[in-house]
Amino acid sequence: MRWLIRRVLRKGKSSVSYEEDIHYGEVLTIGRAADQAIFLPDLRAALNHARVTSLGGGQYRVESLIIAGIRVNGEITYATTVGSGAVVEVGSTRLTLLDARQDYDASVEVAAIDKSEQAAIVASRSKPTTLAETWIGKRWPSWAGFLVVLGLFLLLPLLAHFMPPLRSILAHSPLPGRGAWLSGELDAAHRHFGDDCTSCHRNAFLMVRDTECTSCHVRTPAHADATRFNIPELGDARCATCHKDHNGERGMVSTNQDLCAGCHVDLRARTKGASTIADIGDFGTAHPEFHVNLPGWSANGAFMPKSMPWTASLKENSGLKFDHAVHLAKDGLNTPDGRRTLTCASCHEAEPGGAAMKPIAFEAMCHSCHQLGFDTLAPEREVPHADVAAVVYTLDEFYARRALEGGYADARAPTIVQERRRPGSPPLSRQETVEALAWARDRSREAARTLFTGKACVTCHSVAPPGPSSPDWRIAPVRVSGVWYLEAKFSHRRHETMACVDCHAGATTSKGSNDLLIPGIDNCRQCHAGADASGKIASTCIACHDYHRSPTLTLDAPRSP
Q1: Phi and psi at residue 481, in whole multiples of 5°?
Q2: What does pTM read for this prediction?
């Protein structure tokens, strides 16, 4: 089979010449290899790119020899049958399959695609990347989007604000209502009325006023007396200056240190000496020593706690006798239940919330070792704790009954008390009754003296015997602060990873109950520092202190009493 290969040569803008060649064979190969019937010096062509087979009658079979396929009549294909006039494109070369001419069985014309034509082809095949390349303009889509936003997110919520029926309809539909205007999630405390925006926003498009806040928070304590302390930042501040809603479930309380330090860093100068509070700016670098709340008594003997700066030499006179070193001995203690080793947690338990510690209760924490029995012949009987009158009454009642019933096996007791009386025996005579009750009274007083001054009460308490000024036994009251830092918040639960002695140093070696085992500020600064701390826990003012602390002023009447 004879192929006519006609090459089109362009010498100028309009000068064209032709060069003809003959190829023998059934198949016309196309590629960049030297043995190809149509050699293409184009890197975009493979060595063996495609082949064309003449089927006769002006029909050709075009097959791609590469995975990418070959473009025939503008379409990518792997194999196709075409007629004369079909165009095959490979890189920058165009092959046009022609009808056989004269003595040839098949003909093909090979021409180069010039750069302008290649650019036009690429442009026709590329997808639009800008609106200018499409039939869509910029102006009308912009107006359409503007009108949709205006209608859905301004006009519709605005109508819902002033039309309660529409508001109810929108609440049960996917269309946006007033909720589209929310700038963020409401605080947890405000969610119960969150659907009614007018609860806080009484006037549309105006900031929330303080009167809307105090209508609910009428009894919330104020921070300070704005009349007494003439500080513009305090007197002119709105509630929303610090409490900004729509910041999440716990977003109403600001934890920014500057909120407090902005005034307290030079509070005395700002108040012209009216404030007695120390200037405080940062927990790590500008904070005074803690003030400890300790037991105290007035001149007439009334309990009156006193506050004073913490020092290592401070003593707590609580009226209790207690030796920590004995109770925390490493080898343990002898108890009614055997040898037992105590730890701090044996007596000191956190409250359910984990903030403070439960008060020490004798019945729950001490009674298992310190039992209040008073008679060896009745070891199960005990006197009550912490009530002198009840103790004396219990002793009188116990020995009076033993004396009248008889059968009390004590050699020191009268015969009438020791003898066991049978059922049905005659009652005691008047003389016998007087004798028995006289013994009971004496035995009760003896037992009381033993309890109060011998083996029980005096172990932990200061005891005064009856005298001319008082006919009864007197036990000094126990007054433990319980909360040593009144102005601070502290949670044992948040410090449970620490050992007790990390903060309460010396507890295991303390021999006096008046030792103050409460830590000072240096102990806390081992782990905590200010808001900009590096290498320690960043602690702001609000981490330990509440803001609204006035005992007399409330938000509805912020003035001096």
Answers
A1: -60, -45
A2: 0.63
